[in-house]
Amino acid sequence: MIRSLLVFILLCSSFYISAQETGENSLGSWHMYFGTNKVSDNWSIHTEAQLRYYENGKNFNQLLLRTGLNYHINSNAIATLGYGHITTDGTFEEFADEENSKEHRIFEQFILKNKVGEFLFEHRYRLEQRFIDFGDRTDTQHRARYRLQLTLPLTDIFFLNFYDEIFLNLQDDIFGQNRLYGALGINVTKNLSAQVGYMKNHFPNANFDRLQIGVVYNPDLRAIFKKE
Fold first, then answer.
1. Distance between CA atoms of 16 and 121, rounded to whole angstroms?
2. Residue 228 and residue 226: Cα distance in Å, rounded?
3. Element holding 101 (H helix, E strand)
4. Cβ atoms 109, 125 nearer than 8 A
5. Are the CB atoms for 166 and 144 separated by under 8 Å?
6. pLDDT digits (tens, 9 = 90+) for 1-56
7. Which residues contact 178 (CB under 8 A, 6 or more apart)?
8. Which end of the chain is less packed: N or C, by CB atoms within 10 Å?
9. Measured between alpha carbons, how far is 205 from 24 in angstroms, rounded to an integer?
10. For the segment 148-173, what is each residue's pLDDT rounded down to a tens digit?
């Protein structure tokens, strides 16, 4: 466990040092909640809320609310159809030319899971249809996302979590962004966990550093729905 923690600290340190070389100087923060609420053996409801800041806990950047209906094909494969509402303040210091927007987003998603030794892998494929309102005009955009996530249990309580996710635009310039993430997590209960980590968010013309604080709560609601 100690060796794994040292590797994690070194990785985060190297990410942070390299992150200071280019892009925005401020360390922002993302505060996140995710939930998978099982309502039957094959169906669950996805719930999600994210509050994002340009700086650590201040200077609002984005509010993201997302929900979806999951179909569990088996324990290692999940298909999802969902909707998201996103409010964005695109202005901050040297990025003052960016615009504010409100977005309605539809997404289709497929998750595959597998295990190699102690390592838990998750492949997430997502398509998004984005309907964006800039106030004086509207725009429709489409993009594809792929995320490879790796989770390593350290004990029954602590774990490490890493992922890399690439965003590809289906119009104009293909590359949209890339997110590289590393975190230390704790299993509070069987259905509740928390993570604290660092994300490097790379865009074509800028790099952003983000502290991430996330809570995952997956209550099993099957007993309630069976009574109804």
1. 24
2. 5
3. strand 101-116
4. yes
5. no
6. 545 544 454 455 444 444 343 336 789 999 999 999 999 999 999 999 999 999 89
7. 164, 165, 166, 167, 201, 202
8. C
9. 10
10. 999 999 999 999 999 999 999 999 89
